């Protein structure tokens, strides 16, 4: 029963996030924002949908039960949900599942973004590992953790390049990120 409740909670949470993202995308585009990385977005959606299918399938087919350390993993899961909410609240209208860039915007550097650049991606990484481990779904945990790292290895550089080119990102994070348009490799 706990398996159904937790998975249902996360699936409903994702659907609500899609609605929030759609609303934020509409607001941002009305202000002149544009999308970057459209080509990888369908693969990201497929990865996340496949994750839930794999998780549910592995639990059902192999009759997986809660882990002996379930309570600790569940505590980590709850902390991660707190970080997720903090990320969404900190970014406000800038939060999205897509890479939506508003030229001239000041990069958000509050909440968890004071401490590191991509806390929302950390949330996703933790969830993709912890949710399956809570129910001993080891194949799903390993497979989708690796697939998610591959996805982020494409997504994060795209996002950072776009932010460097049209926002104050470089100044805010003092990161040496080269711009493909200006070939600027120095601070």
TrEMBL record:
One of its GO terms (molecular function) is protein C-terminal S-isoprenylcysteine carboxyl O-methyltransferase activity. Signal peptide: none annotated. It is a multi-pass membrane protein. The chain crosses the membrane at residues 42-62, 69-86, 121-147. Keywords: Membrane, Methyltransferase, Transferase, Transmembrane, Transmembrane helix. It holds the Pfam family ICMT. It comes from the Bacteria. The keyword Transit peptide does not apply. One of its GO terms (cellular component) is membrane. Its main location: membrane. One of its GO terms (biological process) is methylation. It is found in: Membrane. This is 15-methylpalmitoyl-4-hydroxy-2-pyrone 4-O-methyltransferase.
């Amino acid at each position: 029963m706990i398996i159904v409740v937790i998975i249902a909670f996360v699936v409903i949470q994702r659907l609500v996030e899609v609605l929030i993202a759609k609303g934020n995308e509409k607001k941002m585009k009305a202000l002149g924002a544009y999308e970057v990385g459209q080509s990888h977005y369908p693969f990201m959606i497929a990865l996340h949908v496949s994750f839930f299918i794999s998780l549910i399938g592995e639990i059902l087919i192999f009759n997986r039960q809660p882990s002996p350390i379930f309570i600790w993993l569940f505590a980590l899961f709850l902390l991660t949900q707190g970080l997720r909410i903090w990320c969404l609240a900190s970014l406000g209208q800038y939060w999205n599942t897509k890479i939506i860039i508003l030229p001239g915007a000041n990069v958000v550097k509050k909440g968890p973004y004071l401490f590191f650049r991509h806390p929302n991606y950390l949330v996703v990484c933790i969830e993709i590992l912890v949710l399956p481990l809570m129910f001993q779904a080891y194949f799903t945990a390993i497979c989708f953790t690796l697939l998610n790292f591959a996805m982020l290895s494409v997504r994060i550089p795209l996002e950072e390049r776009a932010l460097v080119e049209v926002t104050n990102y470089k100044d805010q994070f003092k990161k040496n990120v080269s711009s493909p348009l200006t070939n600027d490799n120095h601070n």
